Every structure is written in C-alpha cells, then in structure tokens.
Amino acid sequence: MKIAVNKNYIWSKYFVDQLHKVGVKHICISPGSRNTPLTTAFAENKSFIIYSIVDERSCGFFALGLSKSTNKPVAIVTTSGTAVAEVYPAIIEAYYSRTQLIVCTADRPYYLQDRGANQTINQNNIYKNHIKYFGDCGLPELNLKFFVNLKNKIDTGFSICTIKNRGPIHFNFQFEKPLEKNSYTNEIDGELLKKINCISSKMQKETTQKEKIKNIFKHINPKSKGYIFCGSYNYTKQEIESIVSFSNTCNYPIIADGASQLRFIKNKKYILRNYNSLIKSNKFIANLAPEIIIQFGSTPTSTTLLEYFEKCNSIKIVVNKNGDRLDPSNTAKYYFKYEIKGFINQAEKWFINKNKVWFKKINELETEIEKEKTEFFKNQNISIEGTIPLILNKLNQNNVNIFISNSSPIRDVDYFFGKSENKYSIFTNRGASGIDGINSTAIGVAAGSNKKTILVTGDLSFYHDLNGLQNSIKYKIPITIILINNNGGGLFNELPVARYKNIFNKYFITPINLDFKKVVEGYGAKYYKAKNEIDLIQKINSTIKQNQTSVIEIKTNSIKSRLVRMDYWKHISKFVDSKINEAENR
After folding, report:
1. How far apart are CA 499 and CA 508, in angstroms?
2. CB neighbours (10 Å) of residue 393?
C-alpha cells in the first residue's frame, strides 16, 4: 500500500529517532523556515526537553552550558544562511573544552549554491577547523541504501562526539520545498517505511585505553618532591577521590586551579590554593623546586604558574583521556591518553616510601598564606575586585553552581579564592576563554543541573550576551548574577601597553557607560546594587532563595584594584621569604 509522505519530514524523523535511541535528551532550536522538518520531528518526539531560543549565538552557548552541567551531548538546530555562522563561537569553545554538541544545520539544495538564492551560503563543513566530525546528509532520498548511509553517519558522529574524540560534531541537511509535514512530496510503499524504521543505530561502548607506565616510574625516586596539578576539567566524584588518595599516597600537594572542581573539596590539607602567592617568592622558587609535576585536566589559568612550570627543571607528565597535548610551555616529557583513575592505579604502586617532609613544608606555608591573605584584605571594600572571591567564601550556601566569567573574574578567583566550607560546583568557558556567550552558558548550566546557580561576571562579558537573560526569564531558570562593573574591562590595565596612555585610553579601555538597572529591568529581571560586603552577602543569599533571575551590580575601580593586587604580591612574597627563613633557622 502506498502512503503519501513528505520526504524531508521522513528523513528528519529518522534522524531524530536515532538521536533519541542513543540517549540525547536536550535540544536547543532557533526558529527558522528551512529547518522546519527537523524542528517538527523534534517537537513531535515527547522524550526530548526542548528550548526554543531566538538568538542563534545565545542558543549555541545555552546548549554548551547544558552539556557542561549534564555531561551529555546536546543537539542544536538552526536554519540556513548566516544563522549557521552565529553558532560558531559556541562551537569553538566546545571544541577546546571537549564539550559534546551535535550541531544540526538546515541548508538549501546544492544546486542553489552561488546562484544568488536567498539565505544560501556555503555551509559545507563550515566549522571544519573546530569540529570533530562533519556529516553531509545531502538531499533526502526515500531509498533504503540512503537511510543506511545516514545511520552510519549518525553512528560514526555520535561515537566520535562522546567517546573516540569527544567534542562538537556537525550534520548539514539539505531540504527542498515543501518543508511541512503534510505537504506531500512522494508516495512510499508501507513495507519500505517499516524497513527504514527498523534500521537502528548501534553505538560502540566506551573502552579505556591502558598505557604501561612502569618503565617511567621505576626510574623515579619514590621520595621525590612533586606536585599534582589539576586544571579545568569536569572531574567526577570518583576521579576527585582517586586524586586525593593519590596525593596522600605520594605526598604530593594538589595545585587546584581556580577553574577546577578540586579547589572546592573538603579535603583541605591536600589542596594548594595559594600557589600564586608561593611562586612570587624567590626564596620558594630556589629552595622548594619540585622534581615531578603530574598534570590532570587543562592548562593553568595563571600565566605566572605556567611560566613557573616552564622554568622548573622537573619531569612533567600530562594525563588526559583524550590524549590532548595540554602544555603550552612545550616542556612536558610524557603524555598519556589515559583515564585518570587508571593512570593513578598504576602510578601509586611506586610510592611505597614517600617524602613526608616536602608535603609538610608546603602545607604549612599554605596555611600561613591563607591567614595572611585574609588579614591583608579584611579592610578593603568591595570596590576592590580581589575582595569578591573572598566574599564568596563567606556565603552560607551549599550544593550551588558558581560560573566564573573569563578575563579578570577567573584570575581573581584563581589568585584569592581560598578555603571554604561551602560545597561549590565550578563552571567556566576556559576552552577558548572568550567573553562572549557567558550569560547564556551559565543559564544553560543552571537549566541542566537544577541547582542554584551564581554567575560572577564583568560588565563587558555581561554586555556581550544580554540576550541570554531572555532565556532565563522565558524558561523560568533562576540565576543570581554578580555583575562586577569597572566600566570597561580592567584586565587591560595589566598589559604593558597601558603605559602608552594616548593609544591605551582610546583603543584598549572600552567604557560602555550603560545604566544596567534599566537594561536588566527591561528584560524582566530583578536588579540590585550592593553597597558593601555585608549588603552583598545578604543580597546573594536572598536572591538565591527567591528563585528568580537577579543581577547584583558592584561598582569597582579597576585602577585601584590593580594597585592592591600589586601591593599584595609584594607583601606576600616578602612574607613567604620570611617564613622559609624561619623554618631554615629552627
């Protein structure tokens, strides 16, 4: 029996059903015309959680946040033309942060290319420098062979996205009009339709690559002095427990990057948070150099730490399951494509005898610096940006997400966020480290985790992605945004070019002079202005309880903030020198 169908819809429905079978749950769709078949097919499958987001750039970053917080692949659907290009910034961040995005772009037929057809650009592998797989799905054909070919592309792409080479993938769909489900284009035999629906994707199961490391560690003195560095990465609970246990086994302090989850765990005696202060001390660099550095996760947020690693005459070992060479200094001796737990299980066998003195010295300095840092900042007000991370320490919150924006906020967190009783889950966009899409990503994180979420961001990052607020309001996704407003991005004051005032003031400092109260309230969110530390803490705790989209603005002075940072580094380097001298004279 012949059945009247729209081939675009049948093609899209098959694709959508396969994504459902392999476990995709969240879909972010930007409305358009050419993506009608895909949108309809997704909308009709009630197993998906779907977000309709007008701005494609915001849509991409929102999906990025969803994937970061759920640790699952998230699909994005766009129409053709420049809409496809708008998603690119989020794809770049996903590529470098190994975040799982499935980008589905609708396209005009190939024969309309370079003919002046409306909304028709060259979409063929448009993201080729920043994706892990491209699937050209071509024009739909109601032919069993074509559906088998589509199934193979889905299998290959999904396996790469989630297992073999984790990161964003791209499927491009060409559609001819008519696009609507009930605008029939073909008649198809009912039996053929049954056969098509029986072609099922069978995804490969994840396998762990085992590397032999005994040849390295058998030549390493088990009493050697070392660090475990944990960079930005979505560590599981089991991985964190394994790293802490490894630290205890080999007596290596854990240098916990401000962008890493390890900064905020309860096992405080193993965690080194004030390493930036330690390496400002020439005495520390000269007398307490490590012999081994083992790196899990991404590269350091701190340029100073990266330079320290580069100058250290130590054996550097970089470990991550994707085999990425995450070492800008190019000084690592060994790279392992290895699961963290698997690596540790083999490495810890070699540390039967360990250097207890090394760990004790470093831990004592960490404790002393934490006290001195608290004393140094206790009389500074909230117009000094370095105080914000210390205030986050004082919140009476648990099981809360904190999303830290790029530029100054993540650096200040890395520098100054110390010991905290709060249980925070930290999120960042440290893949490409751009300031675009921050609001949308943080709101996506909130949506995917169902946790209370705080975003700490600067005025330029906030301005770049104002449209992201609309997603929070539309879908009632509560978030508290701490807006650090220094009117122009204070990080540039740290650059050498800041000395050249004529050029610097005109082309580098970027004051936007916006009344954020009007902007925020225009989107329908709540606006507050913090007067002092106590007021800020009260407003953060209050807005989190209220389950709403709230922006708390803090007016800061970037120049004074820079001077305070400089004073702190001078003070703390002398302090560390003195403590090392005291220890040597005991």
Report:
1. 12
2. 15
Q: Closest Cα partner for 429 from 413, 447, 446, 441?
A: 441
Residue 204: per-residue pLDDT? 42
Sign (positive or negative) of CA dihedral 103, 108, 111, 112:
negative
Q: In the numeric block, which tokens belong to residue 258? A: 């401000």
What residues are paired with 337 via a beta bridge? 320
Whether the ω angle into residue 178 lies within 30 degrees of 0, i.e. cis, is yes
**Which ranges of 24-128 would DSSP assign to H, the alpha helix?**
36-44, 56-70, 82-86, 88-97
Q: Domains in the chain, please, with CATH?
A: 2-197 (3.40.50.970), 215-364+569-584 (3.40.50.1220), 385-556 (3.40.50.970)
Output the CA torsion sign for 529, 533, 534, 537: positive
Q: Which residues of 416-436 are buried (b: 16+ CB within 10 A; e: fewer)?
A: bbbbbeeebbbbbbbbbbbbb
Do the Cβ atoms of 41 and 16 come closer than 8 Å? Answer: yes
SS in 3 state form for 254-271?
EEECCCCHHHHCCCHHHE
pTM above 0.85, yes or no: yes
List pLDDT tens digits, range 172-205.
999 999 999 999 999 888 887 788 877 764 444 4
Measure the CA–CA gap between 293 and 297, rounded to whole angstroms: 13
Alpha-carbon distance values, 468 to 122, 331, 482, 492 (Å): 28, 40, 15, 25
Radius of gyration of the chain (CA): 26
Q: What is the side-by-side strand order in the sheet with 292-296?
A: 271-272, 254-256, 226-230, 292-296, 315-320, 334-337
Residues 447 and 476 sit within 8 Å (Cβ to Cβ): no
d(CA 354, CA 352): 6
**Residue 532 φ/ψ, nearest 5 degrees:** -155, -175
Strand arrangement, sheet containing 74-78: 49-52, 26-29, 74-78, 101-107, 169-174, 133-136
Tens of pLDDT, residues 205-259: 433 344 457 777 777 777 789 999 999 998 998 999 999 999 998 889 999 999 9
Looking at residue 558, the DSSP 8-state letter turns out to be H
Task: Give the CA count within 13 Å in the CB-facing half-sphere of 142.
Answer: 20
Residue 342 has pLDDT above 60, yes or no: yes
